[in-house]
Amino acid sequence: MPVPWEALIPFGLLTVMFGATGTLFNTAKRLTNDGKPPRYNLDSWESMMMERDRRLTGSLRGQSTDPIAPKEFATNSVWDTERVH
Questions:
Q1: Which of 27-31, 68-72, 76-80 has the highest mean pLDDT?
Q2: How is residue 6 annotated by DSSP?
């Protein structure tokens, strides 16, 4: 049974394009997460801790080992405030 060699070119193109798209998507996800794999099934505690880490380090995935928070942490509250006249 002969092999239809003409079909290998579109098959190769599809394989390369799906592979390139998947690789680029994975790279983009890792770059937005500071090189770490993405998190799934986050509950409210994890979301709160991620917000705290963002306020401490400037990154959702960054963590600080310093036991004392920087001075800016006291004023960059997560709560929106309104101006009092």
A1: 27-31
A2: G
Percentage helix, strand, coil, to 5, in the chain?
Answer: 55, 0, 45
Q: What are the strands, taking DSSP E only, across 1-85?
A: none
CA dihedral angle for residue 58, residue 61, residue 62, residue 63, rounded to 10 degrees: 120
Which residue from 54, 47, 55 is spatially nearest to 71, judged by alpha carbons? 55
Q: Which two tokens stand for residue 1?
A: 């049974």
Cα(10)–Cα(82) distance, rounded to whole angstroms?
60
Token duo for residue 54: 């963002």
Domain ranges in the chain are 30-60
